[in-house]
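Per reviewer request, we include the raw input and output of the structure prediction for the construct analysed in the revised manuscript.
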Amino acid sequence: MIDTRRLRTLRAVADHGTVTAAAAALHLTPSAVSQQLAALEHEVGHRLLTRDGRGVHLTAVGKIMLGHANEVLAQLERAEAEVAAYTTGEAGEVTVACFATAISAVLSPAITALRATSPGVRVRVLDAEGDHSLAMLLDGEADLAITVEYRGAPDAADRRLARLPLYAEPFDLVLPQDHPLAGSATLVSLSDATWIGPYPGNPVHDVITFACRQAGFTPNLAHCSDDFRAVVALVGAGAGVALVPRLALRDMALAGVVVRQTPGPERRVFAAIRRGADAHPLLRPLLSALRTVAGSLGTR
């Protein structure tokens, strides 16, 4: 009989690439993870991993087992959801990993709506950039992630996850008020400008870089901050220009800057849960509230 805890361990190692990183995600010691993997290999009767320097890779049998692990763990999520539904599930806590703009734009209004429709559902919020929240979801640190499409993200066919598209958010150009192109700026016209934007690794950094390259240049990102208020403040100080998600500009003091719409770049935001958990009675009302709020955003 294969122990499902060992299947979770195998998936964590596949997701993180090293025993040490998997151990940290599972809150275990590396020795315990290695023991779990050795026991799983004994149960299966085949090697599941090969070591390459500090990392590990799945063998052919390991990949087969990972596919079944994803199905088994999804079925367990369904079982937990049905049990929770049977016992009413009207009260409990849901942990959501979400990036800052979406916390303001969709998650906070959804929490407000839940007080009226599902007062027993408590939402615990973890501020996490889009490239971190899915890992937190898969590692069991969160029950739901609100994230964005980004390079290297699991795609829509990933059997570990179920997705709910929420909204597509355009980016706007932000320039100093006295910039010579303040009234007519386009991406192409700003090819020689000094740019301000998030650090590499932030999904927004990829969107900005890709949009500029599509316009024929690589942006000179001289100033970096993952806080859009700081980015806009730097633009207002004349330090450079920026592309900022439109919702991040809502309710923000825009002293000393002008905002210009530009065609093209956008980020697609979606909610994700572990596959099989969509029937969970605590997740259903939250997903419904998120869908309703997202539908009323009017990001265009």
